[in-house]
Amino acid sequence: MTATPRPYNFSAGPAALPEAVLQQAAAEMLDWQGSGMGVMEMSHRGREFISIAETTERDLRELLAVPAHFRVLFMQGGGLAENAIVPLNLCELAPAGQVDVVVSGAWSKKSAQEARRYADVAIAASNEADGHLSLPDPARWRLRPSASYVHLCSNETIHGVEYATLPDLAALGSSAPLVIDCSSHILSRPVDWSRVGLAFAGAQKNIGPAGLTLVVVREDLLGHAQAVCPSAFDYKTVADNASMYNTPPTYAIYIAGLVFKWLKAQGGVPAMEAQNRDKASLLYGYLDGSGFYANRVAHEGRSRMNVPFFLHDESLNAAFLAGAQQRHLLQLRGHKSVGGMRASIYNAMPLAGVQALVDYLKEFAQRHG
Ligand SMILES: Cc1ncc(COP(=O)(O)O)c(C=O)c1O
């Protein structure tokens, strides 16, 4: 009997996971490697789970070439909680308690709003005036010399705007650490750690299930939390306890570990980056040449992971989505704040999935153009 192929799922997150990972998780659901326990049923302090967590961290470090002077933390609360946890931990790095935020889309705008509860926030640059369609150019950022850190969302999931290279703050005259929210493009391309103080990512796009938040933080940034910071959110406490100060999201860590093994088997981050480049150029190339659809983001800022697009005739949106569903192309509706469509093409989306989407886009345009 041949199994029916799974639909291609373009969700922005929680997003599709590699099928091989889901199958392995299913096979191990009742009994993880002869232990007699499913992973969800294991103590986080037992040797079985500790070995899972250690392997997961080791594989992540290898995949992203994380230097030894960075700590990897498995936390909870998602990207939005990090918008509070980061200032609670870092805004006292410098006496003035200042945080500079680059607004490149909806998520960094939210980060600025949340940080205002804890810090003196200034907007270093913003693309809000043009509808978040361009990339705020680092050469024009207004950085304060006494800022504790600079916040950047390196891939804006809703607006589809991505920094292909991270800014070098030192070259811009700032000695503040750069904090990146890389939730929606982590592991899709390498990270230049020499430019990063702290990176955080909710897991539910390119890592695994919702519930796990990954934090990679330079060691010298630990130990500066405000007195009111909850202990479970103090990076130093989490690091000193190997992410086991309180119960971590054990099952999500396990699935992340399976995803990391899968990524290594695909050839690691360089192989993923090459495939992501191919997927993005196939999709943008078709959209740009179609005359029927449009992506409005400035070319140099276009995300390889999240591709918002519009039908020129928006009265066809419902028919487009219904036809996509019939073709087993799922979750293409755009974010409600932007409208139109959005295809999220994370690591788990194969080139064949993007090809199937482009085939459908062409067919729909021919039928309705
Ligand atoms: C870039 C980015 N940051 C933050 C968030 C918020 O994450 P969470 O819902 O896990 O709090 C998201 C969610 O999609 C996101 O894409």
Relevant terms:
369 residues; alpha/beta; Aspartate Aminotransferase, domain 2; Aspartate Aminotransferase, domain 1; 7-stranded mixed beta sheet; 3-stranded antiparallel beta sheet; globular; binds pyridoxal-5'-phosphate
Structure description:
This protein has 369 residues and is of the alpha/beta class. It has two domains: 25-265, 3-Layer(aba) Sandwich (Aspartate Aminotransferase, domain 2); 267-368, Aspartate Aminotransferase, domain 1. It contains nine helices and 14 strands. The protein has helices at 19-27, 47-64, 78-90, 106-115, 235-240, 250-266, 268-290, 317-326, 351-368, and strands spanning 8-9, 70-75, 98-103, 120-126, 149-153, 155-156, 161-162, 178-181, 198-202, 213-218, 293-294, 306-311, 329-330, 341-344. The strands form four sheets. Strands 2-10-9-8-5-3-4 form a seven-stranded mixed beta sheet. A three-stranded antiparallel beta sheet has the order 11-12-14, with helices on one face. Strand 3, helix 4 and strand 4 form a beta-alpha-beta unit. Helix 2 crosses helix 6 and helix 7 packs parallel to helix 9. The chain is globular and about 60 Å long. The model has no long low-confidence stretch (mean pLDDT 97). The structure holds pyridoxal-5'-phosphate (PLP). Residues 13, 78-80, 107, 153, 157, 181, 183-184, 202 line the site of pyridoxal-5'-phosphate.
Q: Hetero groups bound?
A: pyridoxal-5'-phosphate
Oligomer: single chain
CATH superfamily of the largest domain: Type I PLP-dependent aspartate aminotransferase-like (Major domain)
CATH architecture of the largest domain: 3-Layer(aba) Sandwich
Largest sheet: 7 strands, mixed
CATH T-level fold name of the largest domain: Aspartate Aminotransferase, domain 2
- What structural class is derived from the secondary structure elements? alpha/beta
- Overall body shape: globular
Q: Report the count of strand segments.
A: 14
**What is the count of structural domains?**
2
Low-confidence stretches: none
Helix content class:
25-40%
Question: Residue-averaged pLDDT, rounded?
Answer: 97
Give me the side-by-side strand order of the main sheet: 2-10-9-8-5-3-4
Count of individual helical segments: 9
Strand content: 15-25%
List SSEs in N-to-C order.
Answer: EHHEHEHEEEEEEEHHHEEHEEH
